[in-house]
Amino acid sequence: MAIKIRLARGGSKKRPFYRIVAADSRMPRDGRFIEKLGTYNPLLPKDSEERVKMDVERIQYWMSQGAQTTDRVARFLEAAGVVEKKERSNPKKAVPGKAATERAEAKAAKAADAADAAPAAEEATAE
């Protein structure tokens, strides 16, 4: 039986609230789970201690039994210092899109034209 430590959604429409659970990977997201390990409330501010609550000892127990964490839960554990930070590589995320690149080029060209025009205006007033 493959165990996953993942989020199970609760809360009403547009008011999400998640339980961190250990569940069989074959069960539905909000379906049957083995044990509740914590909560996550994304509506709270990021610096709030109430935003993510975890039973770290039980999570470590399940991980020692072979449970795999989902990406989001792994990030919570990294932030808590339970597991070492995993190197992630998404090089295209930082690259601006086509429209942003065109805007940046146009802005640079406009700034260069303004810089060229400024010394000419200073020379005309100095004479």
From TrEMBL:
GO CC terms: cytoplasm; small ribosomal subunit
Region (Disordered) residue spans: 85-127
Transit peptide keyword on record: no
SUPFAM superfamilies according to UniProt: Ribosomal protein S16
Gene transcribed to yield this protein: rpsP
Keywords: Ribonucleoprotein, Ribosomal protein
Name recorded for this polypeptide: Small ribosomal subunit protein bS16
InterPro entries assigned: Ribosomal_bS16, Ribosomal_bS16_dom_sf
Listed NCBIfam families: S16 (TIGR00002)
GO biological process, alphabetically ordered: translation
Molecular-function annotations in GO: structural constituent of ribosome
Xref: HAMAP family: Ribosomal_bS16
Record PANTHER family: 30S RIBOSOMAL PROTEIN S16, SMALL RIBOSOMAL SUBUNIT PROTEIN BS16M
The organism's taxonomic lineage, starting at the top: Bacteria, Pseudomonadati, Pseudomonadota, Alphaproteobacteria, Rhodobacterales
Organism (species): Marivita cryptomonadis
Bias (Basic and acidic residues): 100-110
